[in-house]
Design goal:
405 residues, two-stranded antiparallel ribbon, single chain, alpha/beta, 7-stranded parallel β-sheet, 14 helices
């Protein structure tokens, strides 16, 4: 039968509405709180080297977050956002990718960048916006980017990376399409993963991006971090549907929900999602369920919208401790060596911080030096006007005024 409406032709003679929560979406969980594999669960294949790299990355990010949160309170950096409580979701998902897969992040995925090899110095230089910053000091702190590590530079507006990821992933697919049939001719070498929070899923870009990906079959893994709060807005005030996963099904996208504090479950789900994207050339939605243990950012005070008792309940289910317990059971981790490593990392972070905060800020001309191959007249005029303004008010620009030529 001709079906121009693109619907399931399931004819009924009874007047019946489908309940908004009729779809029962399970949550994948493999690892118990004490590091045991749960009954009926199957652990993914994870070698010792990869497992320890995942753990060391989570451990590093936790310590980095603690130190830089304190640095912001001391006035040494202007802004910071922690990954606290979501280390497993971000790190394990990044570990399940290939190095050349593109990462399009929101702003709480520094663990994915660390897993790929972003150095401690690179983190510090970016946060202090100094002349060694890869972004030339043009971004807010924690708005990282690395061409070498296939990590698209973060932008502050919510959700903008979602349709961008769809377009980028479709471009990755084009070289693998048979020109005669229009079908996928071979497995796609690299895919794109797109991270965002459940709050960003309330933006129009989310719906446009997912629908476009579904229709054009873009090999993108949408990774929704449902951590319970969009700044101060709890999830039950954001939406009434069954989380974010139900929307993936609504757009005709293969979807899975996973315990975001379970390293093994996240790794298995993302690995399987990537396989679908690469082999079948279509999008997948992964919804990670975790809890944002810290404030939304250093500009936020969560005591205004949630209780300490609520935080304590989730703090007890630490994703790093759970994975650590599993590693101990495998005989892959030594408790004493782990504690010694933490002390060393703390020292390295503090030392790197002290160095980075003393490095000069980028020269003023870096504002326009590579926006165009040669600055256009209008941009050059604005730049000259800016220089004159700073010269007239040097007290307002103490760092920059002394370096203007």
């Amino acid at each position: 039968m001709i079906n121009p409406n693109n619907i399931s032709l399931n004819i009924s003679h009874a007047l019946e509405f489908i309940d908004g929560h009729a779809l029962n979406i399970p949550t994948l969980k493999i690892l118990g709180d004490n590091g045991e594999i749960l009954d009926g669960a199957t652990a993914p294949e994870l070698d010792k080297e990869t497992a320890l790299k995942i753990y060391s990355t989570m451990r590093f990010i936790r310590l980095l977050d603690e130190r830089m949160q304190a640095a912001q309170r001391q006035g040494r950096v202007s802004f910071y956002m922690q990954c606290l409580g979501e280390e497993a979701a971000v790190t394990a998902s990044a570990a399940a990718l290939k190095h050349d897969d593109m990462i399009m992040a929101q702003y709480r995925e520094q663990a994915a960048l660390a897993y790929r090899g972003f150095s401690l110095d690179n983190f510090m230089n970016q946060m202090f916006s100094n002349e060694l910053d890869l972004g030339k000091g043009r971004q807010m702190p924690i708005h990282y980017g690395s061409n070498e590590l296939n990590y698209m530079t973060i932008s502050s507006p919510l959700g903008t990376q979602i349709p961008q990821a769809t377009g980028y992933a479709y471009g990755q697919k084009l070289n693998h399409i048979d020109a005669a049939t229009g079908e996928l001719a071979s497995e796609i070498e690299n895919v794109t993963i797109c991270y965002f929070g459940e709050g960003a899923a309330s933006e129009g870009d989310f719906h446009a991006g997912l629908n476009m990906a579904a229709v054009h079959k873009a090999p993108v893994v949408f990774f929704a971090r449902n951590n319970g709060y969009a700044i101060s807005t709890p999830a039950d005030e954001q939406f009434k549907g069954d989380g974010i996963a139900a929307r993936g099904v609504g757009y005709g996208i293969k979807t899975i929900r996973v315990d975001g504090t379970d390293t093994l479950a996240v790794y298995a789900a993302t690995q399987a999602a990537r396989k679908i994207a690469a082999e079948q050339g279509e999008p997948v939605l992964v919804e990670s369920i975790a809890y944002r243990l810290g404030a939304h950012s250093t500009s936020d005070d969560p005591s205004g919208y949630r209780s300490k008792d609520e935080e304590a309940e989730f703090r007890a289910a630490c994703p790093i401790e759970r994975f650590k317990n599993w590693l101990l059971k495998q005989g892959w981790l030594n408790e004493a060596e782990d504690e010694a490593a933490k002390d060393k990392i703390r020292e390295e972070i503090l030392a790197a911080l002290k160095v980075a905060e003393k490095v000069q800020k980028p020269a003023l001309e870096e504002l326009v030096s590579d926006v165009y191959d040669t600055p256009i007249p209008a941009l050059q005029k604005q730049y000259e006007e800016l220089k004159e303004h700073i010269k007239q008010h040097p007290e307002a620009y103490p760092v920059t005024s002394g370096r203007i030529k």
